[in-house]
Specification:
Blueprint (H helix, E strand, L loop, with lengths): L1 H4 L2 H19 L4 E6 L6 E8 L2 E8 H10 L3 H12 L11 H4 L3
Antiparallel strand pairs: 1-2, 2-3
Protein backbone atom coordinates (compact mmCIF):
# COMPACT_ATOMS: atom_id res chain seq x y z
CA UNK A 1 0.00 0.00 0.00
CA UNK A 2 1.21 3.45 -0.88
CA UNK A 3 0.23 4.93 2.51
CA UNK A 4 2.44 2.55 4.45
CA UNK A 5 5.32 2.62 1.96
CA UNK A 6 5.81 6.41 1.95
CA UNK A 7 7.61 8.59 4.46
CA UNK A 8 5.12 10.62 6.50
CA UNK A 9 6.14 13.99 5.04
CA UNK A 10 5.86 12.62 1.52
CA UNK A 11 2.49 11.03 2.25
CA UNK A 12 1.17 14.25 3.79
CA UNK A 13 2.19 16.16 0.64
CA UNK A 14 0.47 13.52 -1.50
CA UNK A 15 -2.78 13.81 0.49
CA UNK A 16 -2.76 17.62 0.35
CA UNK A 17 -2.12 17.47 -3.42
CA UNK A 18 -5.09 15.13 -3.81
CA UNK A 19 -7.30 17.42 -1.72
CA UNK A 20 -6.15 20.35 -3.85
CA UNK A 21 -7.18 18.51 -7.03
CA UNK A 22 -10.65 17.92 -5.59
CA UNK A 23 -11.02 21.54 -4.51
CA UNK A 24 -9.98 22.75 -7.97
CA UNK A 25 -12.69 20.56 -9.54
CA UNK A 26 -15.24 22.51 -7.52
CA UNK A 27 -13.74 25.95 -7.99
CA UNK A 28 -10.43 26.90 -9.59
CA UNK A 29 -10.13 29.77 -7.09
CA UNK A 30 -9.23 27.46 -4.19
CA UNK A 31 -5.68 27.72 -2.86
CA UNK A 32 -4.17 25.26 -0.41
CA UNK A 33 -0.91 25.50 1.49
CA UNK A 34 0.94 22.96 3.60
CA UNK A 35 3.38 24.29 6.16
CA UNK A 36 5.57 21.85 8.03
CA UNK A 37 7.31 21.81 11.38
CA UNK A 38 7.10 25.52 12.03
CA UNK A 39 9.61 26.51 14.68
CA UNK A 40 10.27 22.89 15.59
CA UNK A 41 6.74 22.34 16.91
CA UNK A 42 6.32 19.00 15.08
CA UNK A 43 3.05 19.81 13.42
CA UNK A 44 1.60 20.45 9.99
CA UNK A 45 -0.56 23.42 9.17
CA UNK A 46 -3.01 23.24 6.27
CA UNK A 47 -4.53 26.48 5.00
CA UNK A 48 -7.33 26.51 2.42
CA UNK A 49 -8.38 29.83 0.89
CA UNK A 50 -11.28 30.70 -1.37
CA UNK A 51 -12.16 34.33 -2.02
CA UNK A 52 -12.29 35.97 1.42
CA UNK A 53 -12.65 32.71 3.39
CA UNK A 54 -9.73 30.98 5.10
CA UNK A 55 -9.89 27.52 6.67
CA UNK A 56 -6.91 26.46 8.76
CA UNK A 57 -6.15 23.26 10.64
CA UNK A 58 -3.12 22.03 12.56
CA UNK A 59 -2.17 18.37 12.82
CA UNK A 60 0.42 16.91 15.16
CA UNK A 61 3.01 14.79 13.34
CA UNK A 62 2.24 11.85 15.63
CA UNK A 63 -1.46 12.05 14.69
CA UNK A 64 -0.56 12.08 11.00
CA UNK A 65 1.65 9.01 11.48
CA UNK A 66 -1.17 7.20 13.30
CA UNK A 67 -3.73 8.03 10.59
CA UNK A 68 -1.29 7.03 7.85
CA UNK A 69 -0.87 3.59 9.45
CA UNK A 70 -4.61 3.14 10.14
CA UNK A 71 -5.94 2.84 6.55
CA UNK A 72 -5.11 4.51 3.22
CA UNK A 73 -7.79 7.23 3.38
CA UNK A 74 -7.86 7.88 7.14
CA UNK A 75 -5.74 11.03 6.86
CA UNK A 76 -7.79 12.35 3.93
CA UNK A 77 -11.01 11.69 5.83
CA UNK A 78 -9.68 13.42 8.96
CA UNK A 79 -8.61 16.52 7.04
CA UNK A 80 -11.90 16.77 5.09
CA UNK A 81 -13.93 16.43 8.30
CA UNK A 82 -11.86 19.05 10.11
CA UNK A 83 -12.21 21.44 7.16
CA UNK A 84 -15.97 20.82 7.06
CA UNK A 85 -16.18 21.53 10.80
CA UNK A 86 -14.48 24.86 10.09
CA UNK A 87 -17.18 25.69 7.54
CA UNK A 88 -15.78 24.42 4.23
CA UNK A 89 -18.69 23.22 2.09
CA UNK A 90 -18.17 19.69 0.78
CA UNK A 91 -19.77 19.66 -2.64
CA UNK A 92 -20.98 16.68 -4.61
CA UNK A 93 -18.44 14.96 -6.79
CA UNK A 94 -18.63 12.66 -9.79
CA UNK A 95 -15.55 10.69 -8.82
CA UNK A 96 -14.91 8.06 -6.17
CA UNK A 97 -12.30 9.91 -4.10
CA UNK A 98 -14.69 11.38 -1.52
CA UNK A 99 -16.54 8.05 -1.31
CA UNK A 100 -13.26 6.32 -0.49
CA UNK A 101 -12.73 8.91 2.23
CA UNK A 102 -16.25 8.19 3.58
CA UNK A 103 -17.19 11.86 3.31
Amino acid sequence: MMAKAMETDQFMKHVVTTINRQLKLWNDGYEISLLQDLLGQNFYKIVVKIEDKVFQINLQCTDVEHLQAKWPYALDQHIWRRLANKGLVIETSNGNYLKYCAI
